[in-house]
Amino acid sequence: MTAMFRSFRVFNYRTWFLGAVISNIGTWMQSTAQDWVVLTELTDNDATAMGITMALQFGPPLLLVSLTGWVADRFDRRKILLTTQTVLMLLAIAISVLLLTGVMTLPLMFLFALAFGTTNAFDAPARQAFVSDMVRLEDASNAVALNSASFNMARLIGPAVGGILIVAIGSGWVFAANAVTFLAMLVALLAIRTRELLPRAKNRRSGGLAEGFHYVRRRPDLLVVFAMVLLIGAFGMNFPIFASTMALEFDQGADGYGLLSSVLAIGSLTGALLAARRDRARVRVLVIGACAFGVVSLISILMPVYWTYAVTLVFVGFSTVTILTTANGYVQTTTDPALRGRVLALYMAVVMGSTPIGAPIAGWVANTFGPRAAIAVGGVAGLVAFGIGITWMISSGRLHRHEEKRFMLSLDETRPLRVIDPVDEDAFAGAPSVAPAVTTPIRIDHGDAEPRPPEGPIVRNP
């Protein structure tokens, strides 16, 4: 088994991956249908209404972050996912029935978007943290990247199939098809061998999300990662608005819109597979990805015809997944396991919760100034995020002249961190006091490809 697919050695992860691919295909089919229904069936090409729908769907992770992270850390994540996936399946069935009977309205679609968002607010942090329950810490970054590959493999297929089905049989049946694909994930969750799941770190304190906030606040590297993802997520990743309005500008229908989403996924899948080859997630890769995203987005607005615009989306997708996969892997592998669910909930609130900020703005800009102007705003946001990242790299003192190569630079990286709770200090009685530290930079020598485990715990003093 190659290093790229090393997480597949674990039965539970293989099972999870297969169920996720099938379910994600249905999710992307439904996403394409929902966007097209709002844009063309329930409104007269109103991008603002589409932005409101996205805001309602992605707003709950931000509003409920104080609860969802605690739930992901406190309860059995497998049972949480069985519940959320069942609810999402029932919502898809309900929308299908309303569309097929001709009684769906825009206000009703807004309500369903809010219901999807609320359910996903609990699903997302549990799903992300569940990866760490199936694979070892040293394979977590690889598993996150393969999850992204699964997601984007589905994205390659789902939108194109969804666009064709909308034209062939109608949008209502696309929602019904998605409901069926949820069964694959439910079967996978039931087939997982619970005895082979890794034991979870316990946190005896009752600080809830406040403890997660406190942890992130003491980690400047995480604050930079969150800020970069917030900017790009809010203003640059409104692809349903960008792709659908650009498809209309090029006189394309639902199938043309679905094809753009699939083309975007070609680059996304490539980026995810390359991320799976890396031994660990690095901030410098995130910074480079932000720069590439900004530049390619600005290039895409210059494309004169449909096919040339579609080609640029390959590179947009590549840079986007490089950003998201690296950020996710970095958060997972450098966070105290006892707080991972809460920190991931904060991360998902940034990723998904940024949409309510940016989507209505992107929709308004697209309506007022055209879709190219909306894409330009996203490109500029990517360059600003790059500026934040590179400024931190320089000011933090982690960027140095290479010790062996005169004209090269090297960057200190962050090891996986574990913060021992104050209630456990008795276990270290007699040990020398260790000053509080938020990150542990290490010098990565040229050619160093294997991650090195921490030399010892970092004790957080009360």
TrEMBL record:
Signal peptide: none
Mode of membrane association: Multi-pass membrane protein
Any Pfam family: MFS_3
PROSITE patterns, per database record: MFS (PS50850)
Keywords noted in UniProt: Cell membrane, Membrane, Transmembrane, Transmembrane helix, Transport
Compartment(s): Cell membrane
Name of the protein: MFS family permease
